[in-house]
Each structure stands twice: as structure tokens, then as C-alpha cells.
Amino acid sequence: MNREYLEERLVAFVDGELSTEDEARFEIELKQHPDLMELVERMRKLDKLAKSTGVPMPDEAYFEKLADRIEAKLPEKPPVEAGGAPRKRATIVDFLTANRKLVSIAGSAAAVLLVVLIGVQIFGPGTPQYPKDIRRYEVEPAIDRTKVEKSQSPQPAAPPDTAEEATQGRQIQPVPELEGESDVVTPLLEKSKSGAATDSEGSLTGSAADDSPVQIQVAEPSSGSVSFRKMQPRAIGGFQSNQSDALHDSGGGMEQSRLEMVDLGAADRVINTAIRPPFTSLREFTYHDLGFSEAPAPEVFAAKVNEQFESQPRIVPAEVPVAKLKQKELKSTERASIAATSEVDTALVTRAELAYQLAVTDTSNIYDIILARALVEQVVQVTAETGTWTKRLMDLIRLEQFETRRWQEAHLDSSKAPAND
Amino acid sequence: MSDAEPSSDLELIQKSKRGDSTAFGQLVRRYQKRVYALCFRLSGSHDIADDLTQEAFIKAYEAIESFDESYPFYSWISRIATNNAINFIKRQKRSVGGEEGEIAIEKEASSGSGSNPEMVLNQKEIDRRYLAALENLSEEFRVVFVLRMHEDLSYEEIAAQLKLSPGTVMSRLHRARQKLMDELKDILEK
């Protein structure tokens, strides 16, 4: 924990608002900062002073008069019904209760209509079919990317400039922790450019125009065998619900109706035209998957993930400033609040939180951004009525959208980018 | 205020719901001091606190039918009073200078004020300084600080009441404390 983080949490520590675990950790850290310890003491003194300070109160006679004045001003209540219950103004609830049959019919009709609409959105024409086991596809990262060869895909041809866009797509994902591995990426790109990795049909990168799954021929390093694997561009690994998939099906356009501000076009184009990056991302691994019962400290999480993927490029770079992650970390109290005030799955919230932590730390990692946005949207959907927390998330989404656009402007030639719809 | 209060809050609330203003009057007598103190801390003025207290109870009576009896009455009335105070403060500049008007001030016994006259004087001075420092805080900091320190609300409760995020509550509390510590530096260093 750095000083900035400690200072931020100091007040929560003094107020006893940290979880027991966080508090214990905080106390240990605090001992290394005598000046902050002193600040804690001063805050406690102030609190003691505040609590011991009374308000200069008027005398009893004043309060007697005040009560009389209030009583005199109380409005007359409406007459009480025979049963003793006060007569209330008719409310919408009363109306619904009194017209149950009508409401039932209307509700059924609405439900049928909704099902039909959703069906059209998901299974309607022009909607790409996702692999049934998205997670399986997404969780298989062990490929020798230098051996990506031209695809035998029967998919329609990609536009001629697709490979070039793929190259752009690769170049614009400068993940710091992967800098040392640029030699892995570059040969692939060069192959792509020279046509060694893409045939005349450009099937390596798939067709962005038709939104079809991309087929990539990959070689397993362990066996040396070559196989084809469908890579669904917009499949968000780890998603629990079909709704989430539908949310991110820009072909179906549902996500845009959920949150008008969110434009997945740029991200989709990148994925459609870029080769899967040589690193996995948080989408595949939540802390639950890694055996944690609750969100661990970012550094612990990073260590665990890296341990799991020793042979893989690091997905959580060791050099990611922990403080930066911490700043974005939602407090346990916030999580509890959401869980208490809505039906949202706490695990989902924490997944969104973690994904966002990573995404905001490295906004050049488009996959993490998309995942984070997806998760956040899901949370927002459920918690739309709950207020403050979602507002904060929405702000983050706006910020992320801005970053995406900025990134797109900087790196994508929109005139060449295929239409997404 | 009568010494004996035979009826429980619940009984008084139920009677109030049936239109019994006398029962509600008993609730007023039971909680008016606390509500008044809250309003005073939020507004820094006796006159305003007086108005806000009246308004809070009247609003509460008007809405008593919607009161959920499973919750304590004070937390409800204090929420009404806080919202009233915030709206009031936003509407107009509050009076400055601890307007005590013609109200006879009877200093509430504070902890630390014993029989020693010097200590009482000291405590009075400390109280005065603290209240002045509190009053000097901007409204957004003062409200959060008062709710936390004097109403013992958690971050989440404050956040819910003020429609803020718990993070904002924490940040405001931090800044409020910093400002108060600056103003009361000499007292705190004693």
C-alpha cells in the first residue's frame, strides 16, 4: 500500500468502516508511517471533541412552547375507516389489486410480446450464431502464435484491406508487460502483411463485414499438431447468461438499445480484423475461478494469476501500480450495499469491478475494456434503480467510451473499417 | 414534558396513523430536542433550527401513514429533518454568528464539564470553538460530518440519505475532518 492509498482510506479506518481483514492489513501498513499514525490520533481526538460537544439548548419552557406550536399546526387527518385503518388515497397499487384479471391479461400479453422480440433479436436473420461453449473457446490460450497459418476457412472473403487493419489492430495494443515479447507478435504481423498468414481470401482475420466467427488455424505447442479453432469475436468469455451474449451481439444490436451511449462498433471492428492477442485476459479468470472466496488484494490476485500461467504471457503485469488498481477498487461496503439493495449477483459485481480495475489501468487492452464494459452493463441493468453505485459505473463507462473513441481516432482508419451493421 | 411516558413509540405511531394528533404530540415531546439539536448543527442557527424542527414534525405527521413501523421513529424523523435542513440551506444563506435571539440558552451538560468553574468555562469555550468551526464548513462537508459524528450513521446510511456514493461520503468526511483539525489545531494539540 502506498501513501496515497493509505491517506484515502485513513478516514474509513478511523470510522471503523473497513472490513476486519482490511483493517488488520491497514494497521500493519500504518505502522510504517508514523506521521499517518499521528494523523489518526488527531482525527480520533477531533471525533472525541465533536462527540463531547453539546448544542447550546434552549430551556424546557422553550421546548414546551415548541411542542405546543407544532401540535397546533398539525393538519387534520382524514377520517378513519370503521376497521380502524386510515383511509388512504387510491394508489396505483390499489388499482392493480382491484383489477387483477385485467392486469393478468395485460401482463401475459406483454410477456409474450417480450419473448417474441427477444427471439427475433437473438435468432433473427443476420445474427451470427455463437459457439455453444464460448468459455471453452476463450479459455484455450495455449497457441504458438508464430505458427498461425493461413486458414482453410470456408468463410466469405474479407475485404482486401483487412490484413492491413489487422496489422493496425496489433500495433495499437501495446501492452507494457508484453513489450519484451514483441518478437512473438511482429513475425505474425509481418506474415500477415506479406500474405503468409492470410490467403487471398483474408480468412485469417475473418470477415468483419458479415460478423461471422473467425476461423484461425493454430498449432498446439505441446503436440505440434495443427487444428482449427473458431474464434468468436464478440464472445465474452466467462459470461454466465445468454442475456450477456445478446447484449454484446452488435449484429443483433441489442447492446445499443440497453445503453445508448455505448458503441461497441469500434471494439468489434478491431476484434473482427485483428488476430487474437498473445495474452489471455481477465475474462477467463475471476478470483472465484482461482479459488478465492472474495476479492483478494490486486497484488495477491496478480500473483495467483501469474502462477497459473507461468508458461503464458503475464496477464496482470507485476509492474501495474497497485495504487492505481486500488483507486478503482470498490469498497466491500459498496459491494455489500449493492447485494443488499438489489438482486444482483455479488460475484458479478466483483467480476465487473476487477475487470474494470484492469481495463482502466491499461486501456490499450481492448479485450479487457470490452469485458469490463459488458460486466458493468450487466450490473447496471440489474441495479438501474438503485442509484449511486451505478451512477459511478456509468461515469466510468462514459470515460471508457471516450477512451475507446480516442483510441479509435488515433489508430483506426474509419474509412476502411467495415460497417458493423 | 411529562415525566411518565406510558405509551411506546409504536403505540403512539399507530394512534397517530389513526389521526390522533395528541399521540403525535407525545412523539414530538419525546424527540424534539434531538431533532432540534440536529437542525442546529446543520444550520448553525437557533431560529432556523426552530423552524426546521417544526417543519420536520409537521411533514412527518402528514406522511405518518407511510411510516414503516419496523424502523425506529427517530431515524425517520431525523431523515426528514436532515433533508429539510439541506433544502433550506440550499435555498438561502444561513444566518451567521450563532443567532440566539431571545431564546434563553441553557447549556446542555457536556461531558467534561464538572463542578470546577474553570473546567466548565474551558469546555464552553471549546464547544463554542467547535460549533463555530462546524458552521464554517461548507454545507456539503458539514452535513456529512454531522450525520456521521452526531447521528452515528454509517457511510452507507449517509450515502443512501444524501444520494451520494459511499466513496464521496468518505472523501467529504476526510476533507471535513482536515478542515476542522486545522481550525481547532490549538485545542487538539493540548
Description:
The complex is a heterodimer of chains A (421) and B (190). Chain A is mainly alpha-helical and 421 residues long. Chain A has 18 helices and three strands. Chain A has helices at residues 3-14, 20-30, 34-52, 60-73, 92-98, 100-123, 134-139, 162-171, 182-194, 242-247, 254-258, 265-273, 298-308, 322-328, 332-341, 346-361, 366-383, 388-411, and strands at residues 56-58, 214-219, 226-231. A two-stranded antiparallel sheet of chain A has the order 2-3. In chain A, α1 packs parallel to α3 and α8 packs antiparallel against α9. The longest helix of chain A is centred in the N-terminal third of the chain and has 24 residues, at 100-123. The model of chain A is unreliable at 82-91, 125-287, 309-331, 361-368, 384-389 and 413-421 (pLDDT under 50). Chains A and B meet through α1, α3, β1, α4 and α15 of A and α2, α3, β1, α5 and α6 of B.
Protein traits:
heterodimer; A: 421 residues; mainly alpha; two-stranded antiparallel sheet; 18 helices; disordered C terminus; B: 190 residues; 9 helices; 68% helix
Helical fraction of chain A:
40-55%
C-alpha Rg of chain B (nearest Å): 18 Å
Query: Helix segment count of chain A?
Result: 18
Taken from the alpha-carbon principal axes, the silhouette of chain B is globular
For this structure, the quaternary state is: heterodimer
The averaged pLDDT of chain B comes out at 80
Query: Quick one: overall form of chain A?
Result: flat
Mean pLDDT of chain A: 50
The major β-sheet of chain A equals: 2 strands, antiparallel
